Amino acid sequence: MYFQNINNIIDLINIKPFIIAGPCSVENREQINEIASNLNKLGIRILRGGAFKPRTSPFSFQGLEDEGLKYLKEAAEKNNMFVITEFTDSRQLDELYDYSDIIQIGSKNMFSYGFLKQIGKATSKDSKPILIKRSFNATLNEFLLAAQYIINLGNPNVILCLRGIRTFEQIDSKMRFTPDLASILELKDMTNLKIVFDPSHACGDSKYVIPTAIAAINLGSDGVMLETHSSPETAISDGKQSIKPEELTKLIDYINHNY
Ligand code: PEP
Ligand code: MN
Q1: 164 CB less than 6 Å from ligand 1?
Q2: How far is the CA of 166 from the centre of ligand 1 (A)?
Q3: Tens digit of each residue's pLDDT (9 = 90 or more) over 126-173
Q4: Three-state helix/strand/coil letters over 168-225
């Protein structure tokens, strides 16, 4: 099985390619436990799940917040997994720091320079990995400079996550964003930081997720992050782009045969 014996998050993200999987949002204790247990059976070691959800609409589900993060951590611990979750304000850095092994900065916060500085400062003591997502309207230079805010404050462990950019897809494509796959190649020429590709948000449709993840790995992405849910039809957020845990076997088999 894939990665089962590694007990340190830094060692885990040094294995290429690594997989991050889990639901868009933590919905309740049973949901996250079931998903974590199914991912653990596949050998997946990094569990994602949103507890603080910066949604486009204030009327959409905003996440279970602190309670959700506690369920996420509990599910990860029970299943020998590490946690990645998005933080959206400095209160979380103060009070919930130990609940996440990798802190995610969402695409909407990529330009929040004050928050980037707070994260850089808070994580300089232990260099906890930070995964920063590219804004859908950021150039690659803007993206790298956002990462540099964190690095300049003393944490070099920044992971760049590509998740699709906005072009013409709202007009004649059914994809949610335009997958910025070739940016993997360009970023590799520009930086030594690790790169993760998120095909779920990039494509917005579960049927495109695995082939796009495979393409990202073949282009040299260090890792992939996929939204995974036991019943995507009933997911509170992003069900359309979520795959079932068992669908990951295709990706795992591909990696096992080719890497
Ligand atoms: C996420 O990965 O949970 C997310 C909200 O994605 P993004 O910030 O890319 O929209
Ligand atoms: Mn999502």
Answers
A1: no
A2: 14
A3: 999 999 999 999 999 999 999 999 999 999 999 999 999 999 887 888
A4: CHHHHCCCCCECCCCHHHHHHHHCCCEEEECHHHHHCCHHHHHHHHHHHHHCCCCEEE
